[in-house]
Design goal:
mainly alpha; 53% helix; Arc Repressor Mutant, subunit A; 4 helices; two-stranded antiparallel sheet; 2 strands
Length: 121
């Protein structure tokens, strides 16, 4: 297949001419956070709390659930704030950051498991 005919998944066009998006959230908290992020600008968590009227923990949980549903809520340590972005580089950075967090959590779990085993011995 000619490479020029291949379209990245994040940019698939539907027959209606609209770009594909994950299903709209049904949870009101997720809807509020997504609505705030749709402008494509970076939003600090405090700003999202102010904009949505939701508690900080609820905003963080909504961001996690949006990501699990496939919404690219991007954030990185070198650029503060969250933003919704389908840009290839943003998606790669998000995947790298999520992989690093997952690896860190697994390392922590392993350390706790070793401590538990040593204590039981």
């Amino acid at each position: 297949m000619d490479a020029s005919c291949m379209t990245p998944l994040a940019q698939l066009e539907l027959a209606t001419g609209l770009a594909w998006e994950p299903a709209a959230p049904t949870d009101p908290s997720e809807q509020k956070v997504l609505r705030a992020l749709r402008d494509g600008q970076r939003h600090g968590r405090g700003a999202l709390v102010d904009q949505t009227g939701l508690p900080d923990r609820t905003v963080r949980a909504a961001i996690e659930e949006l990501r699990r549903a496939g919404w690219p809520v991007c954030a990185s340590s070198d650029q503060p704030g969250y933003r919704l972005s389908w840009a290839h580089l943003d998606l790669e950075r998000l995947e790298r950051d999520l992989s690093a967090r997952a690896l860190s959590a697994l390392k922590t779990r392993s350390a706790i498991r070793r401590s538990r085993q040593r204590r039981a011995a």
